[in-house]
Amino acid sequence: MGSYDKARNGLGSSEKHGQTEPGNEFDVYGDESHADIKYRTMSWWKAAALMLAETVSLGILSIPSVFATLGMVAGCILVISLGLIATATGYMIGAFKLRYPHVHNMADAGMVLAGPIGREVLGGAQVVFLVFSCGGHALTGMIAFDTITAGASCSVLWAAVAAIICLILTLPRTLNGISYLSVASFISVFTAVMITMIGVGVAGHHGGVTTTANLKFASAFLAVTDIVFAYSGHVTFFTFLSEMKNPADFAKALYALQIADTTLYLIVGVVVYAYTGADTVSPALGNTGTTLRKVAYGIALPTILISGVINGHVTAKLVFIRLFRRNGVASRHMTAHSWTGWLTWVGICFTIWTIAFIIAELIPFFNDLLGVMSSLFASWFTYGISGIFWFHLTPRSERWSTPWQKTKTVFWASIILMGAFIMVGGLYASIDSIIQGYRGSQFAGPFTCANQALA
């Protein structure tokens, strides 16, 4: 019996032993039959569009440089293998949600796993990771504007413009409204990388291409964390599931996502690296000539901003739900067009994007710091935490009952260890990169007006 079937049939470990976690009996948004604002309105394809926009956006832009660092063979193997594992871990998040319908975010999952301490730890980690991701989008938006305008204005202004646009687009209260933006986001990034691939193809081969690479551990693992970050959309999955009409259809959305993103990562990584070789730069849009680079960044702007909007929305929704859902009872402000509800929502969104803008501008080694955040959190949200979910859903008596169950037990235990290894290795590699950056005077000052465009 599959994990989804087990979840629907109540075969989680707690109920097998006659216990039910507090709050397991309610749905996160309550009865929406008479609600002004209805949240559970997304079909599976809209959820897939959101997942694709949130996952592929910035992740795809770093893949060619990963191939340049690791070599063609290792790059392909890692993209495929980590993609397959991300599919399995995403499926487990869906199974956990079906078993516990009230789980809306990682904080709720933490409450199920470890009580109030687990709620605060996982909830805090989710907020920190997503806010830093929002900062990454503000920073990338700034680079895009600087590239398009050739540094015609102060880069701080462009970062502020990117953050303000993201703030405005975050204001819709439901993900269903943002899902249409996600379609535009995917078309945007797909067109931009197509222009890049055509551009490097027309320019012809230059730079050497290697099948393997001899690297120090820190350099190699920093490239691996880029692939981990490219599959790091799992942190938002619980919120997407909560706003689907039928969460049981989540598997369709997940498979559509993983087939699309793995295929895109492979094609873009192989093609761009094959033509640019050792000269490959990151983000990938910078591998063409000046004119095409401006065009590609202009077309990519929607995906740079909209994927940030999704991260901001999920963060805001976590805080909003925390304020207006107490002991399983949803306040009327969650589903009504009340002044309290809207002012609170706008205030949360404004705070998130203000903080994202400040940390993106204040920290000179922000990209490396984002690597630290990814190592700390994406390693668990995308991989390790799903192994913990499996052990929670599977009663101890079943884990070694059959050869297949033994295989699954070993697999999910390995996933937990994998998450821990990625965290430790990624932290070491990211911190080493920060140290090397300071030694080489590679970091600009905070709130600098200097042109941040790629040369």
Quickly list its features:
455 residues; Hydantoin permease; two-stranded antiparallel ribbon; 1% strand; globular; transmembrane; transmembrane helix; membrane; AA_transpt_TM; Transmembrane amino acid transporter protein-domain-containing protein
How would you characterize this protein structure?
With 455 residues, the protein is mainly α. It has a single domain (3-12, 40-365), classed as Hydantoin permease (Orthogonal Bundle). It is built from 14 helices and two strands. The chain has helices at 3-8, 13-16, 44-70, 72-99, 106-149, 155-170, 175-203, 217-230, 237-242, 250-276, 290-324, 339-362, 366-393, 403-439, and strands at residues 325-326, 329-330. The protein has a two-stranded antiparallel ribbon with strand order 1-2. The longest helix is centred in the first third of the chain and has 44 residues, at 106-149. It is globular. The chain starts with a helix and ends in a 16-residue tail after the last helix. The model is unreliable at 8-25 (pLDDT under 50).
CATH superfamily: Hydantoin permease
What is the CATH architecture annotation?
Orthogonal Bundle
Q: Give the SSE string.
A: HHHHHHHHHHHEEHHH
Distance between the termini: 55 Å
Overall geometry comes to: globular
Rg calculated over all Cα atoms: 22 Å
Q: Give the low-confidence spans.
A: 8-25
Q: DSSP strand (E) fraction?
A: under 5%
**Structural class by sheet pairing and helices:** mainly alpha
Mean pLDDT: 86
Count of individual domains: 1
CATH secondary-structure class: Mainly Alpha
**Could you give the count of β-strands?**
2
